[in-house]
Write a structure and sequence with these properties.
Shape: globular
Largest sheet: 4 strands, parallel
Number of strands: 9
Helix content: 25-40%
Strand order of the largest sheet: 2-1-3-4
Strand content: 15-25%
Bound molecules: zinc ion
């Protein structure tokens, strides 16, 4: 399996939780609760890797990553062994968790109308918006919990610190 930075995925209908967490990490992950005939084929043909726990399903496709675990943390661990999952924290929380679209910056007056007042006054610059479903996202306790969960699963984003020799020394953040 070649490793590529910007792999796109399609998660089968049993892997909704995994799809959500891949979106948290910033990976383009298509997911539906139900796929009509041919849909997955089409998505795989477009260059997405199918994620599946079904050996029989997996056999039908070329670009497939077969997972075994039932638990989403373990599934992510399996996937990390197979492909490069985003360790760059700048990628985290850049996608809508519901529809997979990239989040966009918002105009401040729009944000003010659509988020709680305390968020606006403490975190206005961190507010993002999904162009598809119009949900608003911002840094807060919910996000902190997700970061903690990712760290428990071994997602330790690397920070490059400058040392006197001028070479970056990667240290766990
Ligand atoms: Zn959305």
């Amino acid at each position: 399996m070649g490793k590529a930075k910007e792999m796109k995925f399609v998660a089968d209908s049993m892997l909704g939780k995994l799809a959500k967490w891949l979106r948290v990490l910033g990976h383009d992950t298509h997911y539906q609760r139900y796929y009509s005939a041919g849909t997955i084929n089409q998505l795989v043909d477009e260059g997405r890797y199918l994620l599946s726990r079904h050996r029989e399903t997996a056999k039908q496709y070329n670009n497939v990553l077969l997972l075994h675990s039932n638990n989403v943390g373990d599934q992510l661990a399996e996937l990390k062994e197979l492909v490069d999952l985003a360790s760059a924290r700048s990628k985290w929380f850049t996608r809508c968790l519901i529809c997979n679209d990239l989040l966009e910056n918002v105009q401040l007056n729009k944000a003010q109308e659509n988020v709680p007042e305390y968020v606006f006054y403490h975190n206005a610059s961190g507010i993002r918006h999904c162009p598809s479903c119009a949900r608003y996202y911002w840094p807060g306790s919910h996000r902190k919990n997700m970061v903690r969960q990712l760290e428990k699963w071994g997602f330790t984003p690397f920070q490059v610190l400058k040392d006197p020799s001028g070479n970056g020394t990667p240290l766990p953040a």
